[in-house]
Design a protein that fits this description.
The complex is a heterotrimer of chains A (about 280), B (about 260) and C (about 325). Chain A has about 280 residues and is mainly α. Chain A contains twelve helices and no strands. Chain A has a domain of about 180 residues: MetI-like (MetI-like fold), CATH 1.10.3720. About 20% of the residues of chain C have low confidence. Helix content of chain C is about 30%, strand content about 20%. Chains in contact: A-B, A-C, B-C.
């Protein structure tokens, strides 16, 4: 409770939390407010926004409701962003902890694997993966996680290397705790905070990567995504710029909200060392 | 039967391309319920010896016989099981515990790992341990960082005796405590030694503390044994240069104006 | 001997984890010029807070009440300064409490009691103490020298842990020279020459090479010698050592204490020595002040404190000391093993 109060006192946290709350509300409300297929034709094509109040943001090239698409797109973006980030953090934390704690050959091997993944630009990696395996939501999540896990892995390993030398790890060894239990019960939870600090960046990057993949036509074709909307709007950019601008603004706000919330979390959980 | 017999222990490190010996040809024995103190300036190897004996680091040479058996030959599960008999108390009671731990968690770990008490019985055992070290059983639910330094060190001692060890290594265990608390902790340790027949390897830079609780003392200088013998006798009449320097450097309460 | 500094009813409160903690409660004591005063206490006694308050190093969020009056030996006149920290306490009913602003410790001038015109100047950093404006207005009789005690120039502070009080990425010679340059207005070559001299004074071997060494290349005792050299680089009148030897082993501790004793005598500095070890303090101090839970429990000559303590707490501290002449706990409990 104390931490929640501290979190809510930072202005970044409040701004970020509001934006994220709106977004989550959008995502959750989508099937309620806009039941049915958002990709169904709802009205005349290229209707500008604010003209017909049953279609507040107008329609796209094929006459689909832009607002409905926006709300449903929020579901996809958030789902992909959060899932990919969670996967990346999980894989990275486990790999980093194993490497840092075991040391020696295990550490060397795992770090060279990390190097290999890190030298390939993550977007190209995702691109290649999706092209080969085929575009669907799960594949997109996996593709993004493939590129994003290396950052958390390195941070986790660095933390673990320092924690490994602490007295309480030695204490755990002395009472006869199994090394795997030490690694995952004593070390990993204490190594997490800096790893979690990366989470907002990873979520933001994941959302943008998903949008880019969709823009290039490699997203899940059965889902509405903001990236896909931007791509569609590209062809009629001069006639109906709002078709690309609206999802673009949504993307910017989402990334901003995630980032600000992340900053707020880091601020509020900053460890203060007391001088006694 | 000696509890711990160390022979020709050695540990070398490389620093800046040069090898130097942190511990060089150290041998000693500890009998049951006996306190052997390791004294010496910083860098003399006291803490390294403690960590070698506990196998937190591996020696480059030498033998360690614990309760008659070769301690260095053990590994894996066998080593972990044996550790029940050989415990440690650290200098900084705050750093010695997982920052997220509770008192009950910390005391429950050794009980669980060595199968000393089934889950249902653990709370009772934990309460008994707390009372044995002079703490209220209600402390079990508190987080480690919430209690005072003296209480924390008592919890550390409780954790160390939970598995009924025959030897406890105390690495500057009272150095970080307030003067008024030190005496109580030392009395607790001596009481436990008498009742549970526990031997202590007591590391300290404070000769006053050593003199108060140790039977014998070894004075180390740059990794080697400079002097050893009955604690009171050695401190009253040191023969080695380092022993004399340590005694001279210990401040006296009587007024001596330079 | 006149009092160098006079602490009157000093109280300090911190806010930690949402709870307000009283670190000091109404401390009053005088420090004579040239004396060696030890402040003894256990953890939570407030001894470090007192040292930080005198030096003006309290955290910005600390609430301070009371007064610290300084008398500079040169001018001989008394000047009242706000306890050198921080939150504005503008309350006329509390008398002499001046306004000081966070970030400008010691250099802020208080609303004086003598009714002289004084300005509350918003100044930042140590150099601000040298601003002529406020000072000369207040006391035309002063010889142009600045009157506010400035940390570094008039007060030297030695911290407990030299690993964290020294900058790890700057050579030690430069750290000492920096102090000299800032407060004595020397050029870099002059400052480095002074640093070399100081390294020699603190008995560090081969000053020429040591000037270029980094802190991690030195041992704990050597680092603390560097910290002492930096503290006295500008020739302060007061040296505060806050548990300066607590992180060192007994042999090095004795050497550092001897070093401090010698430097303080040679330079005629006043010494405030903070420690939890009453026996150690007794080897160094003329007078001992005993703190407990933020209160001053006893203050007296070292001889009196050691041989005839008046307060029960002082007595208990002396009894708890495990010296080389004390009766061992082991024997008291009867034979064992």
């Amino acid at each position: 409770m104390n931490r929640l109060r501290r979190f809510l006192r930072t202005p970044e946290a409040i701004a970020g939390a509001i934006i994220l709350a709106l977004l989550i509300a959008m995502a959750l409300a989508a099937p309620l407010l806009f039941p049915g297929d958002p990709q169904a034709i709802a009205g005349p094509a290229l209707l500008p926004p604010f003209q017909d109040w049953s279609l507040p943001l107008g329609t796209d090239r094929l006459g689909r409701d832009v607002l409905a698409e926006l709300f449903h797109g929020a579901r996809t973006s958030l789902a992909v962003g959060l899932a990919a980030a969670a996967a990346a953090l999980l894989i990275g934390a486990v790999v980093g902890t194993l490497a840092g704690f075991a040391g020696g050959l295990v550490d060397e091997v795992l770090m060279r694997v990390t190097d290999a993944f890190q030298t390939v630009p993550s977007f190209l990696l995702a691109l290649a993966f999706v092209s080969i395996v085929g575009p669907s939501l799960d594949v997109v999540v996996a593709a993004i996680a493939l590129g994003a896990w290396t950052g958390p892995a390195r941070v986790a390993r660095a933390e673990v290397l320092s924690i490994r030398e602490r007295d309480y790890v030695a204490g755990a060894r002395v009472i006869g705790m199994h090394p795997l239990e030490i690694a995952f019960r004593e070390v990993l939870p204490n190594a997490l905070p800096p790893v979690l600090a990366l989470s907002s960046v990873i979520v933001a990057a994941a959302i943008l990567t998903e949008a880019a993949l969709s823009f290039l036509g490699l997203g899940d074709p059965n889902r509405v995504t903001w990236g896909g909307m931007i791509a569609e709007g590209r062809t009629v950019l001069s006639a109906a710029p709002f078709l690309s601008i609206v999802p673009g603004v949504a993307l910017v706000l989402t990334v901003l909200g995630v980032y600000l919330t992340g900053e707020g979390v880091v601020e509020s959980t900053a460890v203060r060392r007391s001088l006694s | 039967m000696t509890v711990l017999a160390v022979s020709n222990l050695a540990k070398r490190y490389r620093r800046g391309g040069k090898a130097f010996a942190a511990v060089d040809d150290v041998s000693f024995e500890i009998g049951p319920a006996e306190t052997l103190a390791l004294a010496g300036p910083s860098g003399s190897g006291k803490s390294t010896i403690a960590r070698l004996v506990l196998r937190l680091i591996e020696p480059d040479a030498g033998r360690v016989a614990f309760e008659g058996a070769d301690f260095l030959a053990l590994s894996g599960a066998a080593l972990r099981a044996r550790r029940a008999r050989l415990q440690m108390v650290f200098q900084d009671p705050l750093a010695a515990f997982n920052p997220r731990a509770t008192v009950a968690g910390v005391l429950g770990d050794p009980l669980r790992i060595h199968g000393i008490a089934p889950r249902a019985e653990r709370p009772r055992r934990i309460a008994a341990l707390l009372e044995r070290v002079g703490l209220d059983a209600g402390l079990a639910v508190r987080a480690i960082h919430e209690i005072s330094g003296g209480q924390r060190q008592r919890v550390a001692i409780a954790r160390a005796i939970a598995t009924r060890p025959s030897l406890i290594v105390l690495d500057e265990a009272v150095s970080a405590l307030d003067v008024s608390v030190r005496g109580q902790i030392l009395e607790l340790l001596l009481d436990l030694q008498r009742q549970e027949r526990i031997a202590y390897l007591f590391i300290s830079h404070d000769l006053g503390v050593i003199r108060a609780v140790a039977h014998r003392v070894i004075i180390l200088d740059a990794g080697r044994i400079a002097e050893s013998g009955d604690a009171r006798a050695v401190i009253a009449n040191p023969r080695s240069a380092i022993g004399k320097a340590l005694v001279a450097a210990t401040p006296r309460l009587t007024r001596n104006r330079p | 001997m006149t009092a160098l500094l006079s602490i009157s009813d000093l109280s300090v409160r911190y806010r930690r984890d949402g709870v307000e903690v009283a670190a000091l409660k109404g401390i009053s004591l005088d420090v004579e010029a040239g004396e060696r005063l030890a402040i003894i206490g256990e953890s939570g006694s407030g001894k470090s807070t007192l040292a930080l308050a005198i030096a003006g190093l309290l955290a910005g969020s600390a609430k301070v009440e009371g007064r610290i009056d300084w008398t500079t030996p040169k001018s001989g006149s008394s000047h009242s300064f706000a306890p050198p920290s921080v939150l504005p306490e503008i309350s006329p009913t509390r008398g002499e409490i001046g306004s000081s602003v966070a970030g400008s410790p010691l250099a802020t001038l208080a609303i004086g009691e003598s009714g002289r015109d004084s300005s509350i100047s918003l100044q930042v950093g140590e150099m601000s103490g040298r601003t002529e404006g406020g000072a000369t207005e207040r006391d035309p009789a002063a010889t142009g020298a600045n009157l506010a005690p400035v940390l570094g120039r008039d007060i030297g502070f030695v911290f407990q842990d030299p690993s964290s009080s020294l900058d790890p990425v700057m050579p030690v010679g430069k750290q000492i020279a920096e102090v000299a340059r800032t407060h004595l207005d020397l050029t870099w070559p002059q400052a480095f020459a002074r640093a070399a001299t100081l390294l020699d004074r603190v008995r560090l071997p081969d000053p020429g090479t040591t000037l270029r060494a980094y802190p991690h290349q030195l041992s704990g005792g050597q680092k603390q010698r560097v910290a002492i050299a930096a503290a006295i680089a500008a020739g302060p009148m007061l040296l505060i050592a806050d548990e300066a030897t607590s992180a060192l082993d007994s042999i090095v501790q004795a050497e550092i204490v001897a070093l401090i004793r010698r430097l303080v005598t040679e330079d005629g500095m006043t010494l405030i020595f903070i420690s939890h070890d009453i026996a150690l303090a007794a080897t160094l101090a003329d007078r001992i002040a005993v703190l407990r839970h933020g209160e001053l429990v006893e203050l007296g000559e070292t001889d009196q404190i050691l041989n005839a303590p008046r307060h029960a707490y002082t007595r208990s501290l002396l009894d708890a000391h495990l010296g080389l002449d004390a009766e061992p706990v082991l024997d008291r409990q009867g034979a064992s093993a």
